[in-house]
Amino acid sequence: MEWYWALSLLIGCLIAFMAVGMPVVFAFFAVDIIGAFIFMRGEIGILQFVRNSVDSLQVFALMPIPMFVFMGEMLLHSGVASRAIGAVDVLIARLPGRLSLVAIAGGTFFSSLSGSSIANTAMLGSTLLPDMYKRGYRPDIAIGPIVAVGGIAILIPPSALGVLLGSLAQISISKLLVAAIIPALIMAVLFFGYVMLRCVLQPEIAPGYEVQKLSLMERLKPFVIYVVPLLMIFLMVVCSILFGLATPTESASVGAVATVVACVLYRSFSWPVFIEAVRETVKISVMTLFIIAGSVTFSQILAFSGASSGLSALVLEGNLAPLTIIIGMLVILFFLGCFMDQVSMMLITIPLYMPIVSQLGFDPVWFGVLMLIVLEISLATPPFGLLLFVMKGVAPQGTTLEQIILSVLPFILLSILVVVMIIIWPSLATFLPEMMERMR
Amino acid sequence: MLDKFTDRIVTLMAVLAGLILVFITCLIFVDIVNRTVKLLQLSWSVNLAEHLLFVMTFMGAPWVLRIGGHISLDLFVQLLPDAVRKPVTWLAFLMSAVVNLILFYYAMRVLLASYRDGTNIVKALVFPEWYLMWVAPLCFAVNLLVLIQLLRQSEKRQFQMTGL
Question: Would the CB atoms of A58 and B28 count as touching at under 8 Å?
Fold first, then answer.
């Protein structure tokens, strides 16, 4: 079978299975079974698939995923996260669009402790949005920042999706995690600037209100009590990776234990809270890792059928400028994100993309960061963008999906701007990993 | 009767998955502490954690399926008229069940072959492969039971969206 027929068959089946509503994991398994049977010598291929599914999860590099998710869930369910957001709220006194800025600052901070953007959006949506509506904020300035900043969680370590990308693409996970920090901070600053500018130009969309007058000390105190210790956990996780003191798995386990200790010290720990956090962590981690069980076979099938090499050769023979190819790949990823989840997107594209990236001679860490940002954008892209639906779930009644989409649009454009900046100035993504390399 | 059995085994496996998660985290943490104080001989801890990550995932999968936690794209299905949506939803459950049935069959073959041949896993820990491999057919079999349960209640239950 020609490689293009093989590729069409595999991707076509996958899309058809997903479209009828099969869980993504079983759609992948079904394609793996079909592909293994056709391209890997019948039953032997399926038996190999079963072995692969067992082996592909026994990987040390995947272990930070549940631990990073656990950190976020523990902070979320114990109420420590909302207290930290409250402290940020007190600190930011009289700025235009104050609560939207609190959402961005608090969300960026919480995303530095949470591996899950879903947890991030759910927490900010349920704690801040009702207050924003009460104060007369219009949905377009209230919802957008919360959804957009939720996506930053997949950029700032600890990022479970970052670990997954690194593991699937065989990119150094440590480098990828630290490489995404600067782009994430640029994104947060751009979001901040946009909200302030918009609220200055259109004050009616975020009416000002009297904030309780507090001295500087009174404003700083909750920040020092509730935010600084959590920032220390973040710094410990990031610095131990950055300076090569620990692997991402090791720093994730220290981060998870430190999070529990922090909850105990804040007197927010209880067994029901702990069990709920474990429960949610198992749910999210198992959902993600179970799909990974089908990943090795999927890549093998793409390789055995000649689809990976055929597509790679076709693209490289097209005499297109290397950057045009990279942009084309990102655009495809962006469109996939309109109707597909992030893990599926990675599973489909990584085996096809990474050989091309390496043939073109680009830094895989740089490309990994670009991919992460596009995945982050796709989290908020209609019609399927996951964060849109999470927001719909936690927003006050009467909030329509259309309102959510419209409010997110400017933030998507700003995120695309960050992608463009990283393409023009690759050192935005490569500076920290290179520094890390020099320090070792 | 079958429903009760399914519920019990799914819950038991999920509880095990949760305990494994806590255990893995503590194990890695103890390993790091131990590197400094060197009280215990823990050269096997990383390998054990790797094996347990697989066990956790496969133990937790049927529970995640039962609570509708496995990601699915219901966008197109929601656009369909009622009369078509029901059979399509039913078809999705049925196809998922067939996938699990096939995987159960082949996972059993791998398990039996591994037991018969006495295949060992040789890393820091050395043990027969089937100690680990039995989890795979168990997972697919219980998935199948859950899907049968869901098939019978397909009007009430749907797959939901979730993610990282």
Answer: no
